[in-house]
Prior knowledge:
The protein has 369 residues and is an alpha/beta fold. Helix content is 54%, strand content 8%.
Amino acid sequence: MANQISLYSKFRPFQLDDIVGQSNTVETLKQAAIKKSFSHAYLMAGNHGCGKTSTARILAALMECENTKDGKVCGECRACRAIHIGAAADVIEIDGASNSGVDNIKSLIDAAQWSPQELQRKVYIIDEFHRLTGPAESALLKILEEPPSYVSFILCTTEINKILPTILSRCQRFNFGKISSKDISQRLTFIAQSEKINIDTGSINIIAKLGRGSMRDAIGYLEQIGTVAAGKNITEAHVQKYFGVSDRVGILNIVKSIIDSNIALILDQVNDMIMASSDCRQVMYEISDVFRNIMVLKAQKGDSKLIDLPDSEIEDLKKLGESLKITQILKLAHLFADVEKKMSFNINERWIMEATLINCVASLRKENV
């Protein structure tokens, strides 16, 4: 079906309560909606796929809805219907990447001087705001500071460090964190059930981790594997093979072999993963993540609040880290820091992976191998 709507668009949040993993932002904006106390400028900053643009659209709807109640839009009024399908003339979405020049912003400023055509306010949502040029940002400063009473701006960015401090000081700022695998798994389960995608819990958890904090990416992976499976039951083995994801037990076994200084076994385990079509970069990411989690557990005296993993795996990590000191693990961070770059410029990714893992053994044991 050429015009089929993607799952991410189909299940895009409609109310603030539908936004996953951003409770502080949701509660603050909900209170603002209840009190009808909206700012003239907002900044949504954070990782891609974590709900910034969705929140911006919901916030715009809350500003325009004729019958809000308890921080929720009615979904029935003229404003709600128009905004939901992207047909509201007074809610203007702008891509900062393709409208980055000062002339684009000057045109925006000129248009902002005109009163709303249909709705209560004019709301400008500027996505990828950090892509604007310096002169374009500077041109926007004045209207951000003293906009017409009927205008609000919602700026979205993944790179807040590139935005002028003078812009930041004029906005209410909301930081969007990466979404936990547990929260992503719950949302994926709901979507899979709604779409009748036959997938088990283990597979859902793997896809959630693949998203690395991005709900949009995770939903995209679910849609991809669901399309390939074409109604068949999806198992962990299917997901691992299709996305080149290594078996979690295999990853933990490699880490154990590194700690035990068993280089021969490491090479055998790497070979098994390569033969199973695992992606070298993904394997290295998983191994580095295991060592990072071991480090955090040791630094936090066993407290797992900073680790996004099931309780059973946390216990496994505690056992793996019993013989390690934090200072030993810290040395590994330097070995993993440029692995992806080395793989990008080397014709043999496998060799880089094997060499790095052997270096890990040498670093942990302070021995020449």
